[in-house]
Design brief:
There is one protein chain. This protein is an all-alpha fold. It contains four helices and no strands.
């Protein structure tokens, strides 16, 4: 059981890394914020299509990773 949970935790971690890397940058960095690109920072544009899917996938994978990490740590300490 413990090994299966650890493997699942690794799968969630790899999936989370992949989902984050596939997302577009929300702003042009510090130079974009200084030169007037700050409107992107405060959500003037709504995510659509693939961006919305990746955003929701990232949230789901992050929540699953967090919960699974707690479960794995509980089983390891027993």
């Amino acid at each position: 059981m413990e090994i299966a949970l650890k493997i699942l935790l690794i799968v969630f971690a790899i999936g989370l890394i992949g989902a984050v890397l596939l997302q577009k940058g929300k702003s042009a960095g510090l130079s974009g914020a200084i030169t007037g690109g700050a409107e992107h920072l405060f959500g003037k544009q709504k995510a659509r299509g693939l961006d919305l899917f990746l955003e929701r996938l990232t949230v789901g994978l992050a929540a699953g990773f967090f919960i699974l990490a707690l479960v794995v740590s509980y089983f390891v300490n027993q």
